[in-house]
Amino acid sequence: MAIFERDLISVGVDITDKDQCLREMGTMLYQRGIVASYERFMTAIYGREEIMSTGIGRGIATPHYRDWE
Fold this sequence. Notes:
Helices cover about 40% and strands about 5% of the residues. By secondary structure, the chain is mainly alpha-helical.
């Protein structure tokens, strides 16, 4: 998989806050088979955000986590 895949880019989505953005991202990745479990993915993403925000400014963020299993 390339870093940027066309079907993993959402354009024109009305996102109003961080939680909505993370849920939208989780849903998209789950529906496309990138993550096996939506719930596990969301737990990991929110766990990472509790450690430190992945926001880098100007409405840009790089949400991520490391799967140690």
